[in-house]
Amino acid sequence: xxxxxxxxxxxxxxxxxxxxxxxxxxxxxxxxxxxxxxxxxxxxxxxxxxxxxxxxxxxxxxxxxxxxxxxxxxxxxxxxxxxxxxxxxxxxxxxxxxxxxxxxxxxxxxxxxxxxxxxxxxxxxxxxxxxxxxxxxxxxxxxxxxxxxxxxxxxxxxxxxxxxxxxxxxxxxxxxxxxxxxxxxxxxxxxxxxxxxxxxxxxxxxxxxxxxxxxxxxxxxxxxxxxxxxxxxxxxxxxxxxxxxxxxxxxx
Length: 252
Ligand code: PGA
Known about the structure:
11 helices; binds 2-phosphoglycolic acid; 8 strands; single chain
């Protein structure tokens, strides 16, 4: 049985006082009852405080990105060791905004995925097609190549710490969601692709999250699909009530 995950990707939102306030509200509302894993991913500058505030709670903290080198002349970048030193051992990699606006390629993401594995960090790895890919009927092909290029050089044991997030780019921040059937169809395809490469057992144990305009009103239906193991939530994770409602929807 795969435990569901609800992860909040805060993107470039919330100053330190605002982040503290939101975490405070979450701590007073969220009760996972051990039925769902809850992560939040604030910006780098707010991570140490977020770790401090959520210690001894059910909310775990993730970063939104990291570099693939350990240290060196990479102005503006943050390494895995830096994250681990402040108690962060989870990271979102390959978000479509990183790919689109910051030119992250499959090649870079492969290095980041290997670094996350080497450093024993949970890798919440994002894949997803653009609108034109879907319109051209290439969505399966695109997602398959993103998986193959970045993840398929990893050994089986790496997948103990990998969560895949399927986020169709056309559904992110647009208010448009994939239908539950579209989500299920792609999640199943991702699981089959993993099964072909690594075997059924491994594929059945990897959690695959859906992301893209998940809201309290549509979460339950999306999460009830057999291959959807929770969600990566952007906009709706910035408000404690709506994020908590999505967490509630993920409890079986
Ligand atoms: P959204 O973002 O929920 O605001 O669509 C999801 C994401 O980008 O992770």
